[in-house]
Amino acid sequence: MRFLHTADWHVGKNLNGFDLLADQQAVFKQIEGIAKERQVDAVVIAGDLYDRSIPSEAAVRQLNGELVQLNLTDHFPVLAISGNHDSATRLGTGASWFAKEGLYLNTSLDDAFDPVTIGDTEFFLLPYFGIQAVRNHFGDDTIRDVNTAITRIVAAMQEHFTPGKHHVLVAHFFAAGSQHTADSETLIEVGGLQAVATTTLAPFDYVALGHLHNRDALHDDRVRYSGSPMKFSVSEANQEKGVWIIDTDPFTAEWVPLAPVHDIHRLTGAFADLVADDDHPRDDFYDIELTDHERIPDVLNKLREHYPKIVSLHRTHAARQIDTNHARARRQQSPTDLLADFYQQTMGIDLTDTQLKWASDALSAVNDGEEE
To answer: Among 163, 165, 183, 302, which lies 20 to 30 A Cα-Cα from 282?
Structure first.
């Protein structure tokens, strides 16, 4: 059979305050188009469908609409699991009757051992889990780490393997050998412990992973991350996003790129050069590093006249501005002056008069309290 492997949709995420729902919907349409063009037999989503455990109403409406489109309108079986960003309880609501239409959404470890069979393949849907959930399921308090847990889980799944079928595991965790290359996913491992050894996963013909946003975080023919379908942080600026098309017999894995709707660019240069350059996509996202030594009043707002979607602004020489030559002068500055300088260097804009008054009043209140 042939299926599409994707993960980490993070519906409802924003990028430093910029709403991404429209971009996420546009990327979804690309994924849907690939599924139709490649005539897949199923769509696999390996966790983190939402960005938050309590998603916004707009995010819920959008994800519901996307699942309806894939499953009820396009008639693709959809196999999905909850990730660490999802609320298993909320996401799993309705799962028992979703399955009657071919939408297999598993959020419970207890339900991970009964495979979903489509064509010649059995899919085992293993949601993000904690070690205690594994102890409870097996009634075994000696399970202390993630590899012991995974070994028990895989062994129990093997008992349900049907001879002659292909076997696919859909999971959401940090696999040994993976590299954390994106700050959009911090080092959150299953149960908060060490990584899963890929050798433990050998009984499966393919393991469709979610959790890390970079498909190159792990290099294993049969154990793969799809990565996120779009860039969610500046650290992902140079990554190519896409989906895997997996054929089970004979086994092949084909990478299909997704085009960014609004890309993320990293720019380094002097303020004058940056504002003089009009040959850039105005609606894309920008991380800007200024090389200027001098202070530029209201620099962020001035740059936003040319780059409206600045997600971060920093300076090449910020650390050098506080050197030993004028450390003494710094010590002579008032606390509010030091705060104003720090704010300008880190945020790229000056404190307003109102903010300065708040800071001064707060400092006075602290000093008055110390004198009592």
So the answer is: 183
Determine the Cα–Cα distance for residues 167 and 203; give it in Å rounded to an integer: 8
DSSP state, residue 283 = T
For residues 121-141, one letter each, b for 16 or more C-beta atoms within 10 angstroms of the residue's C-beta and e for the rest, the string is bbbbbbbbbbbebbbebeeee
Q: How far apart are CA 220 and CA 197, in angstroms?
A: 12
User: 244 phi and psi, to 5 degrees?
Assistant: -100, 140
What is the spatial distance between Cα 19 and Cα 16, in angstroms, rounded to a whole number? 9
Cβ-based neighbours of 358, under 8 Å, separated by 6 or more: none
Bridge pairing between strands 2-6 and 14-15:
unpaired
CA 47 to CA 300: how far, in whole Å? 36
Q: What would the pLDDT profile of 278-336 be if each residue is shown by its tens digit?
A: 899 999 999 999 999 998 999 999 999 999 999 999 998 764 444 444 455 555 567 77
Pick the closest to residue 286 from 248, 259, 314 (CA basis): 314
* DSSP 8-state assignment for residue 50: B
Task: Give the model confidence (pLDDT) of 258-288 as tens digits.
Answer: 999 999 999 999 999 999 998 999 999 999 9
Beta-strand pair 242-248/251-257: antiparallel
- 3-state SS record for 274-296: HHHCCCCCCCCEEEEEECCCCCC
Q: How far apart are CA 182 and CA 186, in angstroms?
A: 8
Residue keyed to tokens 């954390």? 180
For residue 268, what are the β-bridge partners?
289
**What DSSP element (H or E) covers 254?**
strand 251-257
Specify the pTM. Answer: 0.82
Query: What pLDDT, on the 0 to 100 scale, is given for residue 339?
Result: 76
